[in-house]
């Protein structure tokens, strides 16, 4: 017979099991939508960043690929972007509440370009379907207006959306809090993506499996700086 104590613990055990079972990465290629204060330059940077990650995924031995992004017109919900950014900065990267204005946007991986002041971010998964939001602050604002910085900030947040975490090496793409590195470190007179660590590559392989076990998806165009 099940004890009274076991019955009392059952809801907590079920909640823990569900949290444990939630996949840390995508189980299928997401529909990527770019919206908000987006222009031709920022859209091109997203496509280049997708190409960067598809090369990294290939190098990691997995057939998983991100599809090309599509551009959807619409205003950026600035209040929602700022609120979600604050929640993630407060340590709620895995549980931050998603503002309604952001949850209603089309797409599964939604890259929203804002025009206001906030720290760029990648949200946790939310909704019944796998969905994530990437918020990018205005490209005309410091430090994204520095040469080469916006390219790497977009790629950095896409890395989080794929399931990678920060490291403490300022010469690598995924460096970030609590390490003392930030977007200005990406400044360069030439267009270049910062590299990954070997730990990042192993994490991609662990998240998305060997090539033989995953169906191939449509790859983004392999263009842009390496």
Automatic annotation (TrEMBL):
Residues 1-21 form the signal peptide. Pfam families: Peptidase_M10. InterPro entries: MetalloPept_cat_dom_sf (IPR024079), Pept_M10_metallopeptidase (IPR001818). GO terms for molecular function: metallopeptidase activity. Gene3D superfamilies: Collagenase (Catalytic Domain). It comes from the Bacteria. SUPFAM superfamilies: Metalloproteases ('zincins'), catalytic domain. Keywords: Hydrolase, Metal-binding, Metalloprotease, Protease, Signal, Zinc. Residues 151-209 form the Peptidase M10 metallopeptidase domain. This is Matrixin family metalloprotease. It comes from Pseudaquabacterium terrae.
